[in-house]
Amino acid sequence: MATKKPKASPKTTKSKSTKPKTAAKTVTKPVSEASKTNTVEKEVITSSKGKSCFSGFFAKKYEEKESILTVFKNHKFYGALLGEVIGSMFITLFLFSLGLMGVASAANYSFLVLAVFIAIYSFSGACLNPVITIGMMASRRISVIRGFMYLIAEVLGAWFGWLIFNSFHLAGGETAYDIPKMTAIGENQFWVFAMVELLGAIIIAFFFARALKYKRSVFTFAATVAGGVVLAMLVGFVVSAAFIGVQNNFLFNPAAALMFNIFPASGENFGEIFGGICQALSVWAFLPMIGGVIGFYVSDFMGKLSGEE
Predict the structure, then answer these.
(1) Torsions phi, psi for 204 (to 5 deg)
(2) What is the DSSP string of 9-53?
């Protein structure tokens, strides 16, 4: 019996000695984790010190995987194209129905833009205007292939809008509808016409870029875009009426403008006709799309300066 007692004593001492070891291990774990987090924070701080506020200004803002090989395999892409066609059709149909002349039309147009953008936004982001599409491409918010297909869909939708309007006109037993003409550009008036379209496109693109910050609320997004469209129309109406003496020379939408009779149908020679076509394309197509790029980059520049993510 005496020999059994000293055997039990070392067991108890071993068990007691092992307890503080396990306790010491549990104490050192949170210390090591805290040190790891501290080192990670230091690395982040040191890495961000050398970067300017304009780092990543030209970075892609869309999915890296989207390319010409993958975009056509996604069924959502076709829904986006259909949304662009239908939305552009509604807008062009309205322009032919009520026109774009006067402050009253600007108010009506704002409600149309609000409704159409709310209905179409979930499909394609509701560009519905080559001015917006080119600006989205230039600021790398959408891929080139997606933007190019959007442009085709917008022109196609505008053409469908014109066909629907003209078919109802013919159904009444009347002759073909006389396509409304944009006011002819007179001598020494090219830059006045061009600046009206350019300024209006910059305003619309800037408001659209700012509206993307509120894209979680569809109504806020659509209301911001509609406000930009109304402001552009009011500026165009006042400037054109004051300096040109006309009221129906602005559209701020190249796809819809192509459906109006913007190209000259006659001239003294081929050079005069070709020059008139280039002049019309410059005023109502090319310069507005340049304005779209400027509007998006102005918005991004202001966002970077203010530290907006």
Answers:
(1) -65, -45
(2) HHHHHHHHHHHHHHHHHHHHHHHHHHHHHHHHHHHHHHHHHT--T
pLDDT tens sequence across 48-103:
455 666 676 667 777 777 777 788 888 888 999 999 999 999 988 888 776 655 55
**Six-digit token string for 215:** 């894209």
Angle at 31 between CA 28 and CA 36, to 5 degrees: 125
Topology of the domain covering 71-305: Glycerol uptake facilitator protein (1.20.1080)
List of residues 6+ apart from 291 with CB closer than 8 A: 131, 197, 198, 199, 200, 201, 202, 205
Cα angle: 100, vertex 101, 102; to 5 degrees:
125
pLDDT at position 233, please?
Answer: 85
